[in-house]
Amino acid sequence: MSATDPSWALRRPEPRPALEVVTTGASTVSTLPVPAAPGASTLPALAKPGAATDAGSEASTLPAPAAARPSASDLEVVRTAPDPATPGGTTTVRAFVGNGGPDTTASPFTVVVTLPEGVSPEGPYFPSDCQVLGHGRTVRCVFGPGLREGRSATALVPVRLDPQLPVGRLSGGSVVVRGADDRNEGNNRQPFDIAVVETTAGS
User: Fold this and answer.
1) Mind listing the pLDDT tens digit for each residue in 65-119?
2) What is the side-by-side order of every strand in the sheet holding 75-78?
3) What pLDDT score does 61 carry?
């Protein structure tokens, strides 16, 4: 049997059509899927920013930010006395507040100065936004957070004495500090007096 015998000859594969078609009468229908239009994406659509991830719910699942916690600070009023003044004269009340620590203050604190009878506040004050309250003998000053351990803040309240005051000592003044960080309220208040002195000749 020779190598050219048809049963031993290598058969070349018959060419296959590029498309498989089905002929139905006068029309020819392709059985292959229709290709996507040019430029069309086959990837799943991305969710829009802010869209809900759960049907029927649009609330954020992120936790709310925690409020700042007060520090462990010890605000203290240090007693000081204004300089003596004459009837009708002026002097300055210095409201001296220190922080005994151990932390830096994380919240604002308020200093309240109450004046004795016969004494009126007379600005400008420090801080400049101090406010006169009520009957006119109380001044409130607010300081922001950030007072470090061992440091102090001072409110300055200029005052004028009534011209009819007698020579002597005026009592009834006080300085009070209040703050959310303060862990010891036993040292938050100090009284003060104002010495009324005679007018010197030539003054």
Assistant:
1) 445 577 889 999 999 999 999 999 999 999 999 999 999 999 999 999 999 999 9
2) 75-78, 90-99, 152-161, 119-121
3) 52
Residues making up the chain, counted from first to last: 203
Q: Report whether the peptide linkage leading into residue 124 is cis, meaning its omega lies within 30 degrees of zero.
A: yes
Nearest-10 Cα torsion for 56, 62, 68, 72:
120
pTM for the structure as a whole: 0.65
Contacts of 113 (CB under 8 A, 6+ apart): 93, 95, 121, 138, 139, 140, 141, 155, 157, 173, 174, 175
Q: pLDDT tens, 6-40? A: 443 444 445 444 444 444 444 444 444 444 445 44
Q: Using omega within 30 degrees of 0 as the cis cutoff, is the peptide bond preceding 127 cis?
A: yes
